[in-house]
Design a protein that fits this description.
Helix content: 25-40%
CATH superfamily: Ribosomal protein S6/Translation elongation factor EF1B
Number of strands: 4
CATH architecture: 2-Layer Sandwich
CATH topology: Alpha-Beta Plaits
Distance between the termini: 49 Å
Length: about 140
Amino acid sequence: MSVAEVKTVNEHLYEGMFLVGSSQFANDPDATINAILTILQKAGATIVAHRPWQDGKLAYEISGHRKGLHYVVCFRMPSSGMDVVVRQCHLSETVIRQLIIKHTPELFNAMVDALNGVHSVPAEDEETPEAPAEAEE
C-alpha cells in the first residue's frame, strides 16, 4: 500500500519547499527543522517525509540573506490548512520563503521514495524499455 492510498477524504498531497537561512540551519538544525514542522502541524498536516534539499548562494538577496537552504517536506493536509501555513510562514523568523505544490498520488509517492532513498524497481511482469538495436552494416 502506498502512502497516498492512506489519505482521508478531505486531505490532499503536498510538497513544500521552505527556504531558511544557511547559517541558522548550520548553527541549530534541529530547531530549524522543528520550526518548519510545527508550522505544518498547526495547519493539521501529517508529515510523510522531509529532509534538507539544497544549500548554497541565492540568485539574489532575499530579506538580507545571500545564502539559503531549501528544506523539502512531503505532507498530507486538508486544503483548509493552506491559509494557516502561508500565514505562519510569513510570521516565522525561520522561514524566508515557501512554495507548496499539490501532487498527484503517483508523483507524491515518487517524491516520498526519493526523499527516503528508495529506488523503485519495475515488477517482474512489467516490461523494461530496451535500447534500440543498432543497425548492422
